[in-house]
Amino acid sequence: MKPAAPSTEGNPDTVDRELRALVDWAVAMRAEDIPDQVLARAALGIADSIAVAVTTCDEPEVAKFRKFVLSRGSRPESTVFGTPAAKTDRESAATANAMAMTTAEFDGGYDQTSCHAALYTIPALLAESEAAGLTVRDVLRAEVLAYELVARIALAWAPSGGSYPPLYTHSRFCAVGAGAASALARGADGDELIRAIGIAATLITVGPRNHLMQGALVRNVWPAAGTRNGMMAAQWAACGVGGLASSVRDVYSGVLGFPANANRLTNGLGDEWAVTHSYVRMHACHLFCNTMVEALLELRAQLITDGNLARIDSIVLETHKEALGLSGTRPDTSLAARFSLPHLAAATLTLGAAGPASFSHATLDSAPIASLRDKVSVKPFDMSQAHDHHWPAGVRIQAGGKTYHAVHLSARGGHGEPYTRSETLIKIDTLTQTPYPRFGEVFRAAISLVPQCLSESCSQFIGRACGH
Predict the structure, then answer these.
(1) Per-residue pLDDT tens over the stretch 1-11
(2) Among 278, 344, 364, 371, which residue carries the largest CB count within 10 Å?
(3) How many CA atoms does the CB half-sphere of 251 hold within 13 Å?
(4) Rounded CA gap, 51 and 126, in Å?
(5) Which residues of 153-172 are buried (b: 16+ CB within 10 A; e: fewer)?
(6) Are residues 248 and 180 in contact, defined by beta-carbon separation less than 8 angstroms?
(7) What domains does the chain contain, in order, with CATH numbers?
């Protein structure tokens, strides 16, 4: 989706009218009118999101919250992912799953602007769909359309200049995505859907971005809160509650001060699909660390070849300005570990990967990782070498009397070269093969749009995939 030049700022009637046109388009769109490759991409995103959630089930905070929601004895409507999968009421299941998906810092995003639309829609959508008895085809349709709605809203109110605003993305948009997904799963008409989105916009959370960068675990529950608020927004909308036709604009422009671009709400609608601009992460850390990870893995292979992996004397990390402050060597949470370049380097070199296990609670007190963290220093990357690359990285390691050096200007995934479907399926298989041995096989049928699979109920489908 190519962003249109801003042309409607200061024209509030146009903004509200285009948002309503987007909503009406979504309500009228049938599953059979959506291209097969778009439905398949939505299925792949759902599989990836569930697989990501499973990786965090042993993290202490996630495990305790999962135990809490399952101990309340609520009606068994929807699945809470973990080992084993179990059921509780839809709101609690969605809240727990949203927390789990966020904790891993391993979910995908939308490559046109900062918006993790899958995270904002899938927990609510799956919970509502299981409870309501929707088919897999119904779920894929709703995911494509909910993703389109929240991604276009995020694009229409994107910060100028490409900078990250102080209010974190998950806080800004999760409630809206969950509200849209819940309303679509409930079969809302245009009036009800616009009410749900408007209510949800007024229920966004206030999450300061610095909490993410400093590893405050409260960041991992902002999507959970947004998911629950969005689901309630859909429920209230169904009861006849509503805001104003201008509620979304009033929040994002009037309160938060983002200029609106109405063209982005409907430009290319039906020709370009937001879900096809989604990306997958192969490293469980922020995208701007991907180049660093790839440089570290390159040097790790050389160190092993030379027999010098255990003889490291010093590690110098050269990074872009957005990551320069991430130099703490004593992270005290799993999120802080993901935003500590010394931990990133030490764990990647020690474990040979930057997956969820490299940032788990268990790594915080690992003696080999701690020893390497103390050998790391961070300095600015010479951006004159980077040209149009925003997140370059260089690594220089002294080991065994030799100097090892690698520079990576760009990385796979994210805003660069995307991962293939096959690579994504390998990631999903790897994450789910122990807890859910049939997961990959079952989801491949959905991704391939096998008719028998598409007509199956969401609850039966998830039960087969997760072995319950």
Answers:
(1) 444 444 445 48
(2) 344
(3) 25
(4) 14
(5) bbbbbbbeeeeeeebbbbbb
(6) no
(7) 12-282+420-466 (1.10.4100.10), 287-408 (3.30.1330.120)
